[in-house]
User: Fold Gfo/Idh/MocA family oxidoreductase from Flavobacterium supellecticarium.
Amino acid sequence: MLKVGVLGAGHLGKIHLRLLNQSEKYELVGFYDPNTDNAEKVAQEFGYQKFDSITALIQAVDVVDIVTPTLSHFDCAKEAIENGKHIFLEKPIANTVDEAREIIALATKHQVKGQVGHVERFNPAFKAVKDKIENPMFIETHRLAEFNPRGTDVPVVLDLMIHDIDAILSVVQSKVKNISASGVSVISDSPDIANARIEFENGCVANVTSSRISMKSMRKARFFQKDAYISVDYLDKICEVVKMKDAPEVPGDFDMILQNAEGIKKQIYYDNPEVEQNNAILDELETFADAITNNTTPIVTLEDGTEALRVAHQIIDCFKK
Assistant:
């Protein structure tokens, strides 16, 4: 078992602590949180070992799980890597793209592995259809959340939209060509609502919308490709795959047939895969353990996290024009 420690015991950090404590692939050594009152409360309530410094925790483990505010990601990752420890970094990977690239360089130099916590890659609905998404040419996503003061220190692009950016980049095998975007600050100092149009070199277009001041939550994505439409509901963990094929000469009574102006007939049918329910956060943490143990490439690499951050910052830069 890999010895793991958690940096940060806030809302998400406590979830990581609980899941790592349950995991059969890790031995949870303890945690560090700079808020001494919170650290003491977490230690007493859950029985996790509390460390008095980041350095002490890093030296006691094989893997460092960094669930701290984004501004501190780089410093935490740097110290962990320079001590030869593997790192799991919550998204976004860092505050700036330069910091992210430096993390990659350090991990390469010290031969340690890293993974970024883009958890929607492990959402059971997305996992069920990912292999069916082939060369999509139009993608539309909506990620809407009710207002929560936690996270409003950064634009909604880094808070919410980056989830969809990463998922889109994982299925579009082409470079980003152009980005246009707009954002509106309603209650925060940074944009609370944003929309971006991402154009790829292969012709694919992604229309991405995020809001953190909506009346109800929504996390949906739709992928359109030749002869197929695929929808993913990340929130309800359901998916739908609608495909088209040449219609049979003699359609059945219940076959859905479409005919275009040229007289070509297509049959519409459903190819919905089974969604295997899981705990996505536990999955991402345990697949990282597998990557370390088996010396394989993590599912969400440091490079993936950096590219998602780069595109996110391109979108944010559009707000300033």
About this structure: The chain has nine helices and 14 strands. The longest strand covers residues 176-184. The chain has a mean pLDDT of 94. Residues 121-277+310-319 form a domain with the Dihydrodipicolinate Reductase; domain 2 fold (CATH 3.30.360.10).
